[in-house]
Amino acid sequence: MDKRAVFCAALGMALCFNAGAQTAVVRETSGTVEVKAPGAAGWKAAEAGQELERTSLVSTGFRSTALVMIGNSAVTVRPLTRLSLEEIAANQNNERVTLNLRAGRVRADVRPPAGGKTDFSVRSPTATASVRGTVFDFDGTRLAVEEGRVRLWGASVTRSYIGAGHSSAVDPETGRTASVIEALKEKLTPALPEGMDTAPAPQAAVPAGGSLGVGFDWNK
């Protein structure tokens, strides 16, 4: 192989590598927000417009938040949170993002690029929440979905799909994910009256002339 062919091959590999690399950008900060770059010995104050490489760490203090843009998706890092950007990649207008939530809570507004898809996951020591376009809050155990659907699972690998307006959680001990129906029953269970040690069966409040139902759409 001549030198020209070697150069062209190396250039092609470099272009492919750059096409797959993508950075996150700190859009806004409030309070104490710090970033630890890959390989850095210490933390530095985050600044608006700062680019975050893969495996960067983001930490927020008391009453502090950060807004991080990753492609078209926005991640709000809540107070007292430590987050790692494990994977950030783009290929042929498709994005793949994996975040490691070490402590605290995040809100994710996942928006795929035009004509493409976003495979977006937030992992914690207890559970993983994975979506391709939705809005949700996640604290590593409990999930609340505002828009779209989120797939949630723990160590048991049993996956539940949580829809908009619903919430669920993973048991840290068993790794089991509570179903939407179980979460709804828990929410509707009334407080125990004084002197009682057994709760009555939960009764759902149903508007006059209406009904209460829980539905699943497994085809989306």
Quick recap:
The protein is mainly beta.
Question: Any descriptors?
Answer:
single chain; 220 residues; mainly beta; Jelly Rolls; nine-stranded mixed sheet; eight-stranded antiparallel sheet; 17 strands; disordered C terminus
Task: Describe this protein's structure.
The structure is a single chain. The protein is mainly beta and 220 residues long. The chain has a single domain (20-188), classed as Jelly Rolls, CATH 2.60.120.1440. Helices cover 12% and strands 39% of the residues. The protein has two helices and 17 strands. Strands 3-2-5-8-9-11-12-15-16 form a nine-stranded mixed β-sheet, with no helix packed on it. It has an eight-stranded antiparallel β-sheet with strand order 4-1-6-7-10-13-14-17. A hairpin with a 3-residue loop joins strand 13 and strand 14. The radius of gyration is 22 Å and the shape is globular.
Beta percentage is 35-45%
Based on secondary structure, the structural category is mainly beta
The parts where pLDDT drops under 50 for at least 5 residues are 5-20, 180-220
The main sheet comes to:
9 strands, mixed
